[in-house]
């Protein structure tokens, strides 16, 4: 009886469809990016933005900051940190902080997109 109940459940309730996220190519052929979740100003270092990496992001990569589809600024990734560990590269799905070169805190805000160019 229990087996029949499970069989009926499988016919009624279908498994959810999994949507694949774009994956980063570790060789660097895939440009990365990130949506800004928070912005900090660190004395003596500069402006740090946090978020989840989408693709590969490396130190010294050039980046474009966009807001509502319009380019706001261009910068360079001066540093990458995740859970108090300094990284050379962030991969797809990593929660990271990016140190942005020559940027002020008020030039970038939550929801902005950082695109590696």
Secondary structure layout:
Blueprint: H1 2-12, E1 33-35, E2 38-42, E3 46-54, E4 57-58, E5 62-67, E6 70-82, E7 85-87, E8 89-90, E9 95-100, E10 113-116
Antiparallel strand pairs: 1-3, 1-10, 2-3, 3-9, 4-8, 5-6, 5-10, 6-7, 6-9
Main sheet: strand order: 1-3-9-6-5-10
What is the arithmetic mean of pLDDT?
A: 84
Backbone CA Rg: 20 Å
What is the CATH homology-level superfamily? Translation factors
Number of helices in the DSSP assignment = 1
Poorly predicted residue ranges: 18-29
Order of helices and strands: HEEEEEEEEEE
- How many DSSP-defined strands? 10
* Strand-pairing-aware structural class: mainly beta
Describe this entry's structure for a reader.
This protein is elongated. A hairpin with a 3-residue loop joins strand 2 (38-42) and strand 3 (46-54). It has a single domain (22-116), classed as Elongation Factor Tu (Ef-tu), domain 3 (Beta Barrel), CATH 2.40.30. The protein is 9% helix and 45% strand. It contains 1 helix and 10 strands, in the order αββββββββββ. With 117 residues, it is mainly β. The longest helix is centred in the first third of the chain and has 11 residues, at 2-12. A 6-stranded antiparallel beta barrel has the order 1-3-9-6-5-10. Strands 4-8 form a two-stranded antiparallel ribbon. The protein has one helix at residues 2-12; strands spanning 33-35, 38-42, 46-54, 57-58, 62-67, 70-82, 85-87, 89-90, 95-100, 113-116.
């Amino acid at each position: 009886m229990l087996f029949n109940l499970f069989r009926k459940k499988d016919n009624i309730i279908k498994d959810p469809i999994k949507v694949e996220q774009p994956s980063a190519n570790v060789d660097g052929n895939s440009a990365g990016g990130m949506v800004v979740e928070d912005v900090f100003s660190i004395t003596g270092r500069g402006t740090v933005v946090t978020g989840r990496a989408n693709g590969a992001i490396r130190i010294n990569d050039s980046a474009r900051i966009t807001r509502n589809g319009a380019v706001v600024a261009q910068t360079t990734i001066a540093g990458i940190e995740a859970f108090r560990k300094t990284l050379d590269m962030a991969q797809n799905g990593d929660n990271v902080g990016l140190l942005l070169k020559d940027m002020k805190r008020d030039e970038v805000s939550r929801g902005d997109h950082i695109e590696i160019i």
